[in-house]
Amino acid sequence: MCISIFGDQSPRIKPHKAYLWTNSIRDGRGILLNTQNREIILKSLRRLVWEGKIKVYAFVIMPNHIHLVWEFLTLDCEDIIENFREETTRLIVNNMNIGCPDLVKYFKTGKGIRKYRIWRKKPKSMLLQSKSQISNALMYVHNNPAFDRWGLVKSDTEFKWSSAGYYDSGIDPFGFLTHYLGSEDRIPGMA
To answer: Model confidence at 113, in pLDDT bands (50, 70, 90)?
Structure first.
């Protein structure tokens, strides 16, 4: 069963707090089935972590959307999100120009310097304020590929494009994950 755990409105994102964040591809197009497009998202997240701008506690890259549980480490949270969306749009459009030029036309907006838009305009986010909320968000993110609607895998740890395996094995094949409890058994944004 696929459920929405978001309220009606997304809060303004602030640094040093954990958020469940979701962004979908325009009109639900399944462009994230493409391995190179998924790798583009992973590389962008890895770069942001290595630059000290974010921590990623959990993620899943679904065929037409992504879920992240992340924390911003600098004050420019909204700029980081917009840059992530712009960078991934540019690189995914370049990748589609090589393999699917007809599909690229669908994402063309023809407006200003941002000629393409692959992401929906308004991502959803939810502030996670307790250990229980973070645990529930991780379960939601990791179980997404196994929900009946998708049926991509039987077990969440089987899905390659997710952090579920990290929480099962303790091994981070992506090189950018942080366990949500960390070494101090703390909750991001809480003393």
So the answer is: low
